[in-house]
Amino acid sequence: MLSNDKLKEYCGVLGIFSKKPVSIPWLLYYGLFSLQHRGQEGTGIVVSNFKDIDQYKDVGSVGEVFNKEVLDDLDKIKPTIGIGHVRYSTAGGKSVENVQPLLTNSRIGPIAIAHNGNLTNASEIRKQLENKGSNFYTSVDSESIINLISRNLINNDIVNAIKKSVNQIKGSFSLVIMIKDKLIAIRDPFAIRPLCLGKLKNGGYVVASESCALDVIGATFVRDIQKGEMLVISKDGIKSIFYDKNKKQQTCIFEYVYFARPDSTIDGINCYLSRIEQGKQLYKEHPLKADMVICAPDSGMHAAIGYSQVSGVPFGVGLIKNRYIARTFIKPTQQLREQSVYIKLNPLKVNIKNKTLILIDDSIVRGTTSHHIIKALKNGGAKKVYLLSASPMIKWPCFLGIDTATRDQLMAANNSLNQMQTKIGCDYLGFLSEDGLIKSCGNKKTYCLGCFSGKYPIKRLRLLIWNQYYR
Question: pTM here?
Fold first, then answer.
């Protein structure tokens, strides 16, 4: 129940290139662990030693899929290049065939790809390719990209084939692509999904969805890959190619609210500091008086700390989170489903009894979790509970790499503020404004706010929304 009431990121990607000997599979393993929050339902690694390619992938988390035997086996070919992926399986089913990286043969040899994002024209491209004789073995849109690259290979020029392919696809994509002797990293023209470059101590290079992955494998952050940029990493070094410079950057602002780890920095903005600032902005817009500020663990923690810092209301613990509940926890009846909130989050009665609480969460999607948390806090003795969201009202679904409920399931899309407050059961309900959120993220005008406003960076999505909801 709780996990279904959060926005979900689709994937995380990682790539490593090293001319000098280094244990690529183990570095990928550690790096993927640090990206595990971006996807827990499938993971894989593909490695190359400039001649041979080996792979291993399966359904499950990084710790479930990989062990010492698997990693040592991948290390037997003494690889110098590798890419990895963690997956949240919304686009396509949960079968192992859909787990990435995807690996295919081409006229220049094997090509492997790992993709974070979502294509808006994947079905059209798939039909076009099928009509030309391409075979598809998965239901993920990433396979359309790898098939396009194979089709566009002319004179064995992989760089031009990739350039031509990424100019044909629409949507959000951060890609790492590997052939036997090259690692290629690409960010879409709007830079919707994050991707950064790091450097290993031995002179090798790393590309990753988030900078936290660089830290864990001992790499130094170099820079973010820019919108419409492709990096080609080989024995000759790094070559930067811009295949599209004409789009306005519109990075998903939810990376700073919830998706990215707080120790990651994306496009110059640290996620921890932005979340602290979201709490401070919340106080400017909703200056409430209470006995204690608490958070919905763990997503609202840093915003709650920021709110406490500027309001003077002490930050405290109101809910205890069970970190060991299984992902496959069985809830056989509706009555027991209602009880499941107490298994995941339980009120700390000795700390909340007879107190007025300010509860801060990162967002409100369907509102079901908020309702059960408020109910649990009041049953635990809280006098009043004020609920604040560190993001604006989510009124629109996302088509660019986030698993969002359909619009009819989004609470803010179908209810007034007073109706939402009544359904949730809180004594006050407030949301951070779009301006407040933008201010917390460096006050830049470079963010996608589609889930709040319905205004998306890609024209075909604007037309889709118009046809679906306004026509």
Answer: 0.90
